[in-house]
Amino acid sequence: MLLLMILLFCSLRVVTAQTNSTGSARALDALLQDYAYRALVRPRTRTGRVYDGVVPSNLTGIMVSAMRLRSGSLRRHGFGMYKEFEIPMGIVEKPYVKRLVLVYQNLGNWSIVYHPPPGYVYLAPVLGLLAYNASDLMAKNLQALRINASGQPISIKFSDIKSLPEGPVPKCVSFDLNGTFDFSDVLPDKTCTTFQQGHFSIVVESTALSPVPSRHGKKNNSKVWIIVGSVLGGLALLVILGLLVLLAYKYKKAKKMQHMERAAEVGESLEMTRVGSTMAPAATVTRTQPTLETEYVP
Ligand SMILES: *[C@@H]1O[C@H](CO)[C@@H](O)[C@H](O)[C@H]1NC(C)=O
Ligand SMILES: *[C@@H]1O[C@H](CO)[C@@H](O)[C@H](O)[C@H]1NC(C)=O
Ligand SMILES: *[C@@H]1O[C@H](CO)[C@@H](O)[C@H](O)[C@H]1NC(C)=O
Ligand SMILES: *[C@@H]1O[C@H](CO)[C@@H](O)[C@H](O)[C@H]1NC(C)=O
Ligand SMILES: *[C@@H]1O[C@H](CO)[C@@H](O)[C@H](O)[C@H]1NC(C)=O
Ligand SMILES: *[C@@H]1O[C@H](CO)[C@@H](O)[C@H](O)[C@H]1NC(C)=O
Predict the structure, then answer these.
(1) Contact status, residue 154 vs residue 195, Cβ threshold 8 Å
(2) Closest C-alpha to ligand 5, atom 10
(3) What are the angstrom distances between the C-alpha of 232 and each of 4, 186, 223, 227?
(4) Distance from the alpha carbon of residue 103 to the mean position of ligand 5, in angstroms
(5) CA triplet 58, 62, 67: central angle to 5 degrees?
(6) Angle, CA of 169, 170 and 171, to the nearest 5°
(7) What is the pLDDT of residue 215?
(8) C-alpha closest to that of 191 among 152, 150, 163, 161
(9) Domain-by-domain residue ranges, the chain?
(10) How far is the CA of 109 from the centre of ligand 3 (A)?
(11) Ligand 4 — pocket residues by CB below 6 A?
């Protein structure tokens, strides 16, 4: 029973860890904000210069950068190319700050971990663009500012994109900070557009790719099979244990019965007593007490 409970507990933990990817994506954003800010050379941080950060070793494969801008300059001039993002003029942030830091994220092979696209396969890594208050460059756990492109949208020119498969139509996907996602068309030259901060990539439906199985689906399936397998294995183990206990019990009972029978046999056999020169059986206990006739009261 204990074994089963431990198994169930473990599988539940796996499931909950998997379903709440929004929470973990926000936690990752917070961590990457910190590591991107550390890249800014302090105290003489240059405005409009891109600083590439270093992520902790447990997140190898992710790239981050940070760039500080005056919000007035961003609104009036935009920036041009910031990694894969082309920042047009007309960007306003909410709430207003005097200076902001644009944090760039390339989630690389971690894309699927933090932004699992249900039923889709990534053709490009997930890229993130988030804006933060630049007043305190030592700050951690900052809340992302909302940015809004009031004129042209921000363009995302994916450089690292897998060759498009024949048949299924690739789509741009954008995840906003609530974990909700939207699809839009991929523009010529493999570009997606957005009016807001968030995370972006290009996907195709995994069902449309029957010869190439979805990596995500496979991973999920194998996880499910691991859970089902361990629960079934646990149950089988329990049944075997139960059978063993039953067998042991039966064996013990059988032995006891044998013992009792033997004891009974011994008890039944009359003791042999020497009477003269011959052995004669004699009862140890007289079974019916003799009664004298005179004692007998009718
Ligand atoms: C996931 O995590 C976020 C933030 O930690 C939380 O607000 C949300 O309620 C969680 N969702 C579920 C389904 O547990
Ligand atoms: C990675 O390591 C950093 C620092 O060593 C730690 O703060 C963070 O929680 C870790 N993140 C994950 C996702 O393991
Ligand atoms: C991504 O790749 C790096 C090495 O390039 C590896 O250390 C890391 O574990 C990988 N992450 C995932 C989620 O597979
Ligand atoms: C930006 O940070 C500064 C210093 O931490 C703070 O005083 C200011 O209120 C922040 N601005 C916003 C809009 O949060
Ligand atoms: C973004 O800016 C446009 C134009 O100024 C405005 O119509 C729209 O409501 C804004 N969106 C948000 C989410 O602030
Ligand atoms: C995200 O959440 C905020 C409030 O939590 C809400 O105002 C906003 O409309 C949501 N955005 C989307 C796209 O669901």
Answers:
(1) yes
(2) 148
(3) 10, 45, 14, 9
(4) 22
(5) 125
(6) 115
(7) 44
(8) 161
(9) 19-208
(10) 6
(11) 95, 97, 133, 135-136
Helix (H) or strand (E) holding 172: strand 171-175
When the candidates are 2.60.40, 1.20.120, 3.40.50, 2.60.220, the CATH number that belongs to 19-208 is 2.60.220
Ligand 2, CB within 6 Å, residue ranges = 31, 56, 58-59
Q: Which helix (H) or strand (E) holds 74?
A: helix 71-77
Backbone dihedral angles phi then psi of residue 52, each to the nearest 5 degrees: -90, 135
pTM for this entry? 0.69
* Ranges of the chain with pLDDT below 50: 2-19, 211-219, 267-272, 284, 286
Region of residue 78 (phi > 0: left; psi between -120 and 50: alpha; otherwise: beta)? left
How is residue 164 annotated by DSSP?
P
Question: Cβ(62)–Cβ(32) under 8 Å?
Answer: yes
- Residue 17 has what pLDDT? 37
Give, as one character, the DSSP assignment of residue 119. T
Kindly give, in sequence order, each residue whose CB lies less than 8 Å from that of residue 14, ignoring residues fewer than 6 positions away.
223, 226, 227
Q: Are 190 and 158 in contact (CB under 8 A)?
A: yes
Residue nearest to atom 3 of ligand 6 (CA): 178
Neighbours of 61 (CB within 10 A): 13
Cα separation, 165 vs 206, in Å, equals 11
DSSP H or E segment with residue 249 = helix 215-268
